[in-house]
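U., I forgot to send this yesterday:
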Amino acid sequence: MKLKLSVPQWHYSMLLDRDRVAVFKEAIEKTVKTGDVVYDLGTGSGILAMIASRITKNVYAVELDPITYEYAKENIKINNFENINLIEADASEYNFKEPADVIIAEMLDTALITEPQVPVLNSILKKGLLKEGGKIVPERAHNTAQIVIAKMGHIYYDEEVISEPISEEIHYSTVDFYKINDEEVSYNLKFNINEDIKNIENISLGVRLNSYTELNEKIIAGSTPMLNPPLIIPIENPVIKNGVLNIELSYKMGGDLESIKVKCL
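Result:
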């Protein structure tokens, strides 16, 4: 599939992330059927809408950001996709003319914190805009946490600087996009700290969050450079008792990094 694409600078890295684009392309091609009504929420460059529109003629692509909208408009035009209805709007507020057979929503970030995936899909489901038996791509996000030696004293993405793990990675939540989800969440997490760590009182600790994206029952994507890179949150005054660290992790999905709170129990 060859396309001519022009995007804002901040979208360029997303298009260069071939693993990210490839898993969504595969999932869309295995989900969308001829005659389906498809929503692409947060269309960005429009690439996922274009993939869907090669299969069906009823694609609604929604983009909130006016600059990105203009790029998507030009991309759709120069690639001769006449069956994409591009809409400049907030997808959570837009009044769609017909319900969807398939909803594509790539508004993802680690633990679903800084992107509006959950609030937008909550709004869509509350309005009954997904047909009975309809599909969402992706379907779920599985979140994990792990204690690491933090390299910085502030929240950061663990991309090029890999922080050393000192506990097991534990699964703490699954967010099912077919359900209406609470946007403000809190979890009590227990970690067994590796016994071979010495002088731990002199080490800065953090909790590393990872998200695994379940696009369908056969495709689960891990982190890529532009899809849910690991996120490190420093832990202030960690208390380890008998080799165990207990924390409370809370944040708002669709909020921002400032909504994240970590405290020892």
